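Record minuted for everyone:
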Amino acid sequence: MVNVKRCFNISELRKAAKKRLPSPIFHYIDGGADDEWTLRRNTDAFEQWEVVPSMLTGVTDVDLSTQLFGQDLALPFIISPTGMSRLFHHHKELGVARAASKANTYYGLSSMGSSTIEDVAAAAPGPKFFQIYIFRDRGLTRRFVERCIEAKYDALCVTVDTAVAGNRERDIVTGMTIPPSLTTRSLLNFAGKWSWLAGLRHNQDFTLANLDENIDPLKSGALSIFEYVNQQFDPSISWADIGWLREHWEGPLIIKGILSPEDARQAKALGATAIMISNHGGRQLDSAPAPIDCIPGIRDAIGTDLELVVDGGIRRGSHIVKALALGASACSIGRPYLYGLAAGGEPGVTQAISILEAETRRFMLLAGFDSVESLRSNAAIRRVGFVNKLSDA
C-alpha cells in the first residue's frame, strides 16, 4: 500500500499511481490524442512565463481564498470533472467530492462519472457543479439539468470540444473499454496489481452511473471510449444549443472548451457566467493551444464580466500563481487529483490538494503577495526572454 504522505509532489503521486494501476487504466489517465503534442505543451507552456517578485513587502501569511461561481472558496483551484473515477479507485467520485468539500473548494462531477448526481450531493456538502454534454437525445440533457436543480448543484458546466472522440491511440493499443474487459491480451496488464484488484471486493460496479440506461442500446458488451462518445454525443451542436441550455438553467453557467477570444465574446453574449479555458487535457484536438497562453487574449476580449478558469497542464503551485497573475479567476486540476486517487483513494486526493495548496502559498510568500487579489492586481509576469526597454535591465 502506498503511503501518499511520502509523495511530496504531483510527479511522485503519478509514479505511485502507475505502480498501482493496470496498464490500460493508467494510460487512460495519462494519455492524450494523436502525437500528444498538446498534452505535453499544456504543462511546458508554463515554463515560458516568469514572475518578477516584489521584495521587502513584509508578507508573513497568504490568504488563498477567492470567490467563484457565486461561492466563497478557500483555494484558488477547483476539482475538474473527469470521467469514470471508479476505474482508478473504489472510493471513486464520492471520495474525491469529500476531499474537495473538506478543502472548501468546488468539485466538478462529470456526466461520464461512476457515481450519480444524487449520491455525490449526499456525500459532500461543499460547493459542486455538474459537467454536461449536449447529447443527441436532448431529453437526456434536459433531465440532467432537472436532476441538478433538484439536487441543488451550484453551477452547470457544458463541455463543447467533444463533437467526436479524439484519437487517443494509447486507449486503442491497450483496448480500454467501459467497463474494463478482461481478455487474453489484457489479463497480463491486470496481473500483479493486487491493491487495485483488492478494491473489487468493495465495489465491482464499473458503470456510467448517470447514463446506465442509455449505454450500449444494442447490448454489444463493453464499449470503447470512442464508440460511446461517437454514439451518444451530438456533433452538430452550435451556439443555439447554449442559448437553449441557458433557458433551462438559471444558475451560473460555465462553458468548458473555449480557447479563442471570439468564442469567449459569443459565450458572454449568450449568457454564460464563466469560461473554462481548456483543450480537454490534450485528449481531443492535438495542436490546440495551451490554456495558459490563451488567458491574456480572452481576458482582453471579455473584460472583467466573466470568470475565467484555466484547465490543463497544472502540476505545480507555481503554475496556479502564473495563471492567476495573467488574469485567471481560478484554476482547475484533473490529472493531479486522479493520480492521488489512484495512488491512495480519498487520502491521495487530499494529498494532491495539500501539495498544490502548500506550493501555491510558498510561491506567493517568496514572490511578495499576501492574497489572490493582490496577485491579480500587482503581479509582474512576462514571457521568458522579454526585456522592458524602459528599464535599465
